[in-house]
Automatic annotation (TrEMBL), chains A, B:
Sequence ranges assigned to domain HTH crp-type in this UniProt record: 147-215
Classification of source organism: Bacteria, Pseudomonadati, Pseudomonadota, Alphaproteobacteria, Hyphomicrobiales
Organism annotation: Stappia albiluteola
Name assigned to this protein: Helix-turn-helix domain-containing protein
Domain Cyclic nucleotide-binding: 14-113
InterPro entries: cNMP-bd_CS (IPR018488), cNMP-bd_dom (IPR000595), cNMP-bd_dom_sf (IPR018490), Env_Response_Regulators (IPR050397), HTH_CRP (IPR012318), RmlC-like_jellyroll (IPR014710), WH-like_DNA-bd_sf (IPR036388), WH_DNA-bd_sf (IPR036390)
Superkingdom of the organism of origin: Bacteria
DNA sequence: GGCTCCTCTTGATAATTATCAAGCCTGATT
DNA sequence: AATCAGGCTTGATAATTATCAAGAGGAGCC
């Protein structure tokens, strides 16, 4: 790995408080690679050989069964994926592919587990990260079990709106096919869900969404911090 | 806490490898209590004051939003719940109530976090438990996003069947209303899903289910280890 | 027994979501 | 400019799931 990249990695929450020597040893074993878009990184069922850290770009996690496929999440800098499989030395439960061209750090699983044993600060950071991922899935699962697809879309739009500054306009961060899969619906249904939201002041123009009545949208969406807040 | 209960607790995977002194200190701070059935233990949104360990009985995790409610999981001995909230010092994302009369160990969050720092073996056990819970939710989420309700029921029945010895008969572990909520459907729909499975050799007699054509059921269910296997 | 409560089931209907088949639009290519 | 491909939308229809209402059956109780 190029030494020029080290400070950037070191500043990630996962690594910033561990000892210098342990960090160096871990990086000695790791690879930092750039992958083109739409490249398969891992496949569900494979043994967890590496922990992945997305340094730049975006990675899509997805799962398959029965010939169906569903997007399970999008990982952006700085995020890890399949940490749980690495820690348990188990197989991956999800597949992953680059969504955009991405710079990714690969750390061999064994080194992650060894360092976890040796470095208390790293162990603490790992646990916080893992617990955060866990809570993320719980929220997704609640979203799925407690809401209709229109409600899921409305709440997702409100979240993007807040993330992007809340000035009445949102730029969709992914293409609509991907968003529909994230939300657990078909692309056709996403189109119709946008139409359903029109009376609530949601105007669609390609990947730009404009809101003319946020309050009406919120009344419909009934956002719930215990589902929609990323940080909670 | 009564000293008579200590050996039982000590033998739990979470505690068995930690140091004796740290275990004693942790237990000094903990409470072991027996609660009657259907008692609310925690409510989503509350700060995580305790880590809960189900020693005997059964606890239901559930979530609410929009006036809807859904069962998120059932915790049986020996299982923990809301570990992630405790570790992150955050609020609970799920509510919990006893399903049966249950004996539950309550450990103050702060002591869990302190001991996590002090005791490396405990930290390791915590991480394995947390990673296991995480993978459990991911599987539930895949189940929900990739399968219809009839498929979810078929696979759940096959899982119970395997757990109970696979002799062609299953005793449902919960009442049907609870099972329907776990599977993300209404009680009415569960009834109909059982009817749909009749041509596949599934015969319902109260809470006893008999299978006369497991292979047909498996062809319908298409079980997937990466969703249905508890241990993976 | 008779009563009551409760869960579960069934029927009728409605709402939600998926599927299939065009068609539209846009951006890239030639 | 013409062509083409891909993503998105729309319409028609079907499948899935939920809702509302009613009834069957069982367990507990007086």
């Amino acid at each position: 790995m190029r030494t020029a990249d080290l400070p950037q990695i070191r500043s990630l929450r996962l690594f910033e408080s561990m000892s210098e020597s342990n960090f160096e040893a871990l990086m000695q074993a790791a690879y930092l690679q750039t992958f083109p878009a739409q490249l398969d990184l891992i496949s569900e069922g494979d043994p967890a050989d590496f922990l992945y850290v997305v340094v730049e770009g975006c990675v899509e996690l997805y799962a398959r069964s029965n010939g169906r496929e569903s997007t399970m999440g999008m990982i952006r800098p700085i995020g890890t994926f399949i940490l749980a499989a690495v820690l348990r030395d188990a197989v991956y439960l999800m597949s992953a592919r680059t969504f955009q061209k991405s710079k990714i750090l690969l750390i061999p699983s064994e080194n992650v587990r060894d360092t976890f044993e040796k470095d208390e600060a790293f162990a603490r950071a790992i646990v916080l990260e893992l617990a955060g991922c866990y809570r993320g899935v719980v929220k997704e699962h609640k979203d799925m079990k407690l809401r209709t697809s229109v409600e899921r879309l409305a709440n997702r739009l409100l979240r993007y709106h807040r993330d992007q500054g809340g000035n009445g306009t949102v730029e969709l961060p992914y293409d609509k096919r991907t968003i529909s899969s994230m939300l657990g619906m078909t692309p056709e249904n996403l189109s119709r869900a946008f139409n359903t939201l029109k009376p609530y002041g949601v105007e669609v123009d390609g990947s730009t969404i404009r809101f003319s009545d946020i309050e009406a949208l919120e009344r419909l969406a009934k956002p719930n911090p215990l589902i929609d807040e990323r940080s909670m």
